């Protein structure tokens, strides 16, 4: 009896719980035994929409994956153009965007690009590009419902600020007064080794050879740094800063002059900043004259020369229309030969028929300003010599006007005074940064 009862229970369980042999197999047997065929018909009718739903899910997944890849491709095409070092959006650049996008799109199976449009965005202070595409994705199971393709589209855009082309003209005072020792410590050391003189006068022998016993060479032998040396180093560092700041190919050009009573162009305007850096090694102190006359700082000659040399400033958008700067470094006192009528004669003193000493006249700079040339000035503050009768008689009366006059000559925000213990190099870096900032604000 136990064996018969166990067998009966086994048969009962197999009938009552068909899932043990598989629910689908159980349904299949029932469909095959159904005499009316109604269940089979219902099942057949349900299979079609079920398959279509499953196919649609697959096709929509393929569509979304294709769109994500095409969106990434159009982004890459736009960025490939907008990051180029130029302010001008050319037809070749637009064609390049299309070529890049189509090449990426060709890697996607079952995708057909129906359109691609790239257009520059209008603007003066910005460069921009927008691009859009449309495409179709071939379906798989969706084709059974006569839906052979699915449409997709996308767009991308990017803008950046215009980077201005700038020409920098450097006008550097190398008159004998720039032979002043650079710091208070250097001045003290210079006076100790040069019999009380703080200036490293640079002299020639009567036969025109170098006087190796002048104060200039004494300063060299004693490792005393002079203002002219600091100026030379600051120009070299300025070139490095300009090179690292460029966002466009050959964005910055430079030209460099030194002046005393004569003016020397060390290098013509060039986009090769490495050549400018090499030329900066030529910045050196002018020789003092054997007769010890001091009229060797001629502002009006130098500024007049730069006014005729520097063209009117442009808007900086193209290399042909650069913004133009004059960087003017000086100790602020002109001691100049008289060339006809000196401007602002009441601001200084006529020492004799061929010598005039004064602060700069702001009117000297006006012609350049009228041409939209921006003037940056570093004032290496003039050393007062109150134990000197000539200074007390001819410089002290206007010494409080030296800085304000130079500031009036400079463009607003581009004036940097440097004290005796100040850092000319730091002032040059600040001037460069302020110059670039003034361009961005103006435009």
Automatic annotation (TrEMBL):
TM helices/strands, residue ranges? 39-58
Taxonomically, the superkingdom here is Bacteria
Q: Which intervals hold domain Putative Flp pilus-assembly TadG-like N-terminal?
A: 37-80
Give the matching InterPro entries.
Answer: Tad_N, vWFA_dom_sf
Q: Does the keyword Membrane apply?
A: yes
The record, for Gene3D superfamilies, names:
von Willebrand factor, type A domain
One matching Pfam family, short form? Tad
Q: Which UniProt keywords apply?
A: Membrane, Transmembrane, Transmembrane helix
Q: What is this protein called?
A: Flp pilus assembly protein TadG
Source organism: Methylobacterium pseudosasicola
């Amino acid at each position: 009896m136990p064996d018969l009862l166990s067998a009966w229970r086994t048969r009962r369980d197999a009938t009552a719980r068909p899932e043990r042999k598989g629910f689908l197999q159980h349904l299949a047997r029932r469909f095959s035994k159904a005499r009316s065929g109604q269940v089979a018909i219902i099942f057949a009718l349900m299979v079609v929409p079920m398959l279509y739903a499953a196919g649609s899910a697959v096709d929509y997944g393929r569509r979304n994956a294709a769109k994500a890849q095409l969106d990434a491709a159009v982004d890459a095409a736009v960025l490939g153009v907008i990051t180029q070092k130029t302010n001008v959006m050319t037809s070749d650049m637009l064609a390049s965007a299309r070529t890049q996008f189509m090449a990426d799109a060709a890697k996607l199976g079952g995708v057909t690009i129906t359109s691609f449009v790239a257009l520059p965005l209008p603007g003066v202070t910005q460069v921009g590009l927008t691009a859009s595409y449309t495409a179709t994705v071939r379906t798989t199971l969706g084709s059974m419902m006569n839906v052979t393709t699915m449409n997709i589209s996308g767009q991308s855009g990017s803008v950046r600020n215009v980077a201005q082309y700038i020409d920098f003209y450097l006008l550097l005072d190398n008159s004998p007064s720039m032979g002043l020792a650079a710091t208070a410590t250097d001045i003290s050391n210079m006076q100790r080794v040069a019999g009380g003189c703080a200036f490293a006068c640079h002299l020639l022998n009567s036969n025109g050879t170098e006087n190796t016993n002048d104060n200039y060479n004494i300063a060299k032998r004693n490792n005393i740094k002079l203002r002219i040396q600091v100026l030379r180093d600051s120009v070299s560092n300025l070139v490095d800063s300009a090179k690292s700041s460029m966002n466009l190919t050959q964005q910055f050009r430079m030209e460099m002059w030194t002046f005393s009573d004569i003016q020397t162009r060390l290098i013509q305007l060039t986009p090769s900043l490495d050549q400018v850096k090499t030329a900066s090694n030529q910045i050196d102190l002018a020789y003092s004259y054997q007769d010890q006359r001091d009229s060797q700082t001629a502002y009006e000659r130098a500024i007049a020369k730069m006014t005729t040399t520097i063209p009117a400033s442009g808007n900086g958008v193209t290399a042909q229309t650069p913004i133009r700067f004059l960087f003017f470094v000086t100790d602020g006192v002109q001691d100049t030969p008289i060339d006809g009528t000196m401007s602002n004669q009441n601001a200084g003193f006529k020492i004799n028929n061929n010598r005039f000493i004064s602060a700069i006249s702001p009117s000297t700079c006006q012609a350049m300003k009228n041409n939209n040339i921006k003037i940056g000035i570093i004032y290496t503050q003039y050393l007062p010599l109150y134990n000197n009768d000539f200074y007390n008689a001819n410089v002290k009366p206007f010494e409080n006007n030296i800085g304000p006059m130079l500031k009036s000559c400079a463009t607003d925000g581009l004036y940097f005074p440097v004290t005796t213990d100040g850092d000319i190099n730091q002032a040059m870096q600040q001037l460069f940064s302020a110059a670039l900032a003034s361009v961005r604000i103006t435009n």
